[in-house]
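Record type: monomer structure entry
Structure origin: computed from sequence
Chain ID: A
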Amino acid sequence: MIDLHTHTTSSDGTLSSGELLHLAIRTGVQALAITDHDTFSGYDQAKAQNPDLELVCGIELSTKYQDKTVHLLGYFVHGEPTAAFREWIAYLQANRHERNKKLVAKLQSAGMNITFEEVSQRGGSLPGRPHFAALLVEKGIAASIQEAFDLYLDEQGSCYVPREEPSFQEAVKQMAAGGGISSLAHPVRISRNLQVVQEHVAEMQALGLRAIEVYHSDHSAEEMSFYLSLAGRYALGITGGSDFHGDNKPTIALGTGKNRNLNIERSVLENLQRLPLA
């Protein structure tokens, strides 16, 4: 069993890198990819601990595709990310930092007593909207994480602040140049209409996409089978993972996903490692 989609406290997970490693070993995960949002910090910390399992360097980016946000996974299975790619990631982090400051200001202008320092205490150097939501719940401003997003933080929320996102094509290009293999994350979030997904995947493959996340906690058996057929049709690699976030997504278990809908074989990673760089 492997898991190629997980998050730590370096982005929006609730387990530190060390805690995630220990959990993976206890649950029998043989290979683990840390795919934090916009940062390699979680992976770097985990690697320094010389874990007793195969550790895969990964990242998850929010990209803009046809005016929609689409998540893109990057896997560095042939070597470490280049220095130039890490510099590009630092640029994205700076954009997120600016968005966060604007979001704090907008929440304050709406009468909410929160500070940037309070958010940073929960999200470290790279807080995201889940950390804002947790703070709003803690202060009694929202009754739940979901309500915090619905009322204030999501695109339809009263205090939503967009952040600059790279285009899908640029992100794919940067990943390839940086030594990584790009994979479309949880394609189910593009559409439940399988024909629509197919049309988008065809275009994304033409833009340089190298793989698709077939196995994911949110995918039904029918959807996984369909995404697998798309991988074959468009000569794409296959990836898969639980999208584990710890307590932030309590219904998702490391390795086995939601209601044990996952059991990803090591061959998925081995085939990804055989996929040549673009």
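Annotation 1: The chain has a mean pLDDT of 93.
Annotation 2: Residues 90-153 form a domain with the DNA polymerase; domain 1 fold (CATH 1.10.150.650).
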